[in-house]
Design brief:
Length: 254
């Protein structure tokens, strides 16, 4: 059975004083409630090793990005080797904000995936369409092209280390959420693409998250869909109470 997962992506938020308080609140929740789903938090880079110390294996830590380059003169970049050396196990790759603001292509994302896997990191690999692509009814083709390119060099055995996340760009940070039906349609498509490429077993075992203005009010309806295995949570992960409610909603559907 594929694992239920909830990932909190803090993006570029929280000074250390506030971050430390939130990390401790999340740790208290996880150590007390012992959720059956996997909980992962992706704070800003400077807090990664401190987060690991606070969580003590109750919660896993993810980086929000990784370089496609191994090492060298790449000012401001963070390598997979560096992340691995401080105990990071997961990394978000291909987030829509990286695509739009930093102009990352499917090919760059593919290279990042390869580098992360080579160093033993588990990619949380994002895909999703813009509002224009959905209005023009290109959303299915867009997501298919993203997945086929990003997974181009990923072997069947490596797929056990991949978590996919569908995040419609038009629903990220906008307050607009894909309906459970819209989200399920895309998750079913993604699982179908995996079946074509890797077969039924790998497709059935791959966790596919939904990301896009998930909150404590809509999480339960989204997570009840058969192909939605949890969430990639943005703003709601910055509040321990809201994040805890979303975690509980995910665990409810195990």
């Amino acid at each position: 059975m594929r694992r239920k997962i909830v990932v909190g992506n803090w993006k570029m938020n929280k000074t250390w004083e506030d971050a430390r308080s939130l990390l401790m609140e999340i740790n208290r929740f996880a150590s007390t409630h012992k959720p059956k789903c996997l909980v992962i938090v992706a704070p800003p880079y400077p807090y990664l090793d401190r987060a690991n110390d606070i969580f003590m294996h109750h919660v896993e830590v993810a980086a929000q990005n990784v370089s496609q380059f191994e090492k060298g003169a790449y000012t401001g970049e963070i390598s997979a080797e560096i992340l691995k050396s401080i105990g990071v196990k997961y990394v978000i790759i291909g987030h829509s904000e990286r695509r739009t603001i930093h102009h990352e292509t499917n090919e760059i994302i593919r290279d990042k995936v390869a580098t992360a896997l080579a160093h033993g990191l588990n990619p949380i690999l994002c895909c999703g369409e813009t509002l224009d692509q959905r209005v023009e009814e290109k959303h299915l083709d867009t997501v298919r092209a993203q997945i086929e390119t990003m997974l181009d060099s990923v072997s069947s055995s490596q797929m056990q280390n991949i978590i996919l996340a569908y995040e419609p760009v038009w629903a990220i940070g906008t307050g607009h959420t894909a309906s459970p039906h819209q989200a399920q349609e895309m998750h079913e498509l993604i699982r179908g693409i995996l079946k074509e490429k890797y077969g039924d077993r790998i497709a059935d075992e791959t966790t596919i998250l939904y990301g896009g203005s998930v909150n404590s009010g809509n999480a339960d309806d989204l997570f009840a869909m058969p192909d939605i295995d949890g969430g990639l949570i943005g703003g709601a992960s910055l509040n321990a109470g809201d994040f805890g409610s979303i975690i509980n909603a995910s665990c409810k559907h195990i």
